[in-house]
Amino acid sequence: MNKHWLVMAAPAALVLAMVMQPLMAGDPDAGAELAQGCAACHGADGNSSNPQWPKIAGQNERYLRESLKAYREGTRQDPLMAGEAANLSDQDIADLAAFYAAQTPQIGSADPELVELGEKIYRGGNPETGVSACMACHGPSGTGNAPAGYPAVSGQHAAYNVIALRAYANGERNGSMNAQMMQSIAERMSDEEIEAVSSYMEGLH
Ligand code: HEC
Ligand code: HEC
Question: What confidence score (pLDDT) does residue 1 get?
Fold first, then answer.
């Protein structure tokens, strides 16, 4: 076999293998059982009542799986979630993701004072400081991009959104390529922009 061919084909085959990797099927009924242990913080149906804890109802399966694996492996760090994810098997994670993805997120409402700036950032970013439009990846109505595993942000608690954006901006949440992509966006945002767009997303649907 020609060496040149190998050099060209190996990366292509790797990418293909990654794209075609079949998802382990998740069983939402088994997930519902396991989710009883998560309900105290995330609510029985994934709609948390504490605004600092994320809603995970209706989140896409790929993002849910990747998040739980990241906590388990320690590439995403949180004192509460580390213990929760430590003993989950890949099958448990697939089952939990299938359960939460099938739940309906509760949409909140945006602070009327912040809507104008929030919408401007969400839809158009800030060309002066190089902040990308959030809509490009999180979708015009905040539903995310399920095949790519980009998270839905529609209805998410503003307080949690602020925590997440600050964690990206100060480098606390940068353990994956996706997180680093968000880091390069969040670190360009002012506190005012973070507050406004966080509130806007809570009402977005
Ligand atoms: C003691 C409270 C608590 C319990 C119990 C808990 N979580 Fe969490 N969970 C949190 C907090 C707080 C965060 C946000 C952490 C952060 O900022 O990374 C979180 C984040 C998550 C995320 C990431 C959400 C996102 O939008 O990025 C997922 C997925 C998740 N939890 C699933 C679960 C599952 C499944 C269980 C049960 C096996 C569980 N959690 C149990 C508090 C909890
Ligand atoms: C190029 C695509 C892209 C753009 C543009 C983008 N995001 Fe993200 N965003 C992502 C991805 C991918 C993640 C998940 C990263 C990870 O795994 O931590 C994410 C995560 C987030 C999270 C955390 C979600 C959670 O549940 O923890 C928030 C909040 C967020 N983005 C807000 C924004 C805002 C606000 C903007 C616009 C200023 C924006 N994003 C622009 C791709 C993008």
Answer: 45
